[in-house]
Write a structure and sequence with these properties.
11-stranded mixed sheet; 20 strands
Length: 362
Amino acid sequence: MKRLIIILLMLFTILACEEIYHPDLEEVDNKLVVEATLNAQLQQNTIKLYRSHGFNSENKTYPPVSGAKVYLSDNLHNRTPFIEMSNGTYLLDYKLDESQSYQLQIELDGETYESRMQAVPEMPKLDSVYADYATDITISGAANNKEDIITEHGVRVYTDINNEGQISHYRFDAQKVILYVNHYDTVIKSEGGRDMVETRPIYSWKSRYPTGIFNIAGPPAYSTQKEITKHPLEFFNLNYKRIISDTVIFTGWIYIVHQYGLNEDSYNYYKDLNNQLDAQGKIFDPVYIQANGNIKCLTNPDEVVLGNFEISSYAEARYYLMYSLIIDNLSIKRIPKDYYIPNRGALKDKKPEFWDSIYMSE
């Protein structure tokens, strides 16, 4: 009993010494954030302006910036105004001229902001797309034990790019549409008038989208080489039963690749963002840095502006990817058509228009 009392007194003494420490953090004004990506192939583009939050802010939404005067200025000093469509969202109804360069200009609260000039990149192009079996290894946290290392087997899609023009930097996004067939039973009348049960198909699909860091590609640093070889586009888990029920029939993927041609400074901006997004607090991770955008405040050079002004060219390519958990039948084929595909859906009896049997298996 005496020993127990001593232990309790020691624990009480340790707990009584605890004190919550509240560090003094420097309060930073909310900064202007510019989300401005213009697609050179579109007639209309929108950009967004909003304010950042302090580190300890409990507000989960970023306040939009309204009332700004926003212009697109070209290298011939022509200015085209944006129109504010809603709070913080500004519309540009103007198709970019591929022979010109442009910059973004913003006038707000007595301050003037301006980006660097951006040329309109050439149209991007994938020379070849192919697939092979691969293993994807994900490390969670500091990987102190084997549970922090996740190994998944699947199929990885690659591309080679050999553009003879000026463009050499790219960003990729995608939509992955998994296709599968379910079945249902229905009663029909036979020629003899008897009721018969017939099994019919339900053509089903649903979309998935890449997550994680930005998928970008560029030539090696300090090199004049422009060719890009075996750049990884997307990983498909071999176990598709994690996505769909094991009672349905998997019939492949429609893989829609969105390819953007970038200027080099936009590519470097995404590279800086990836360095931050991919860091996990390990000893050899890069230290926290502020991504260097191309927008400055002319009237107050010390003012920090977050975000970047980007002009990109755009091309889309579609592929049909098929593989199996049971046999080795990996194949990938270019789809020559660009039917509209809803995000998800199901259609009884009749195949959807995009479910073209010319290039897809049943």
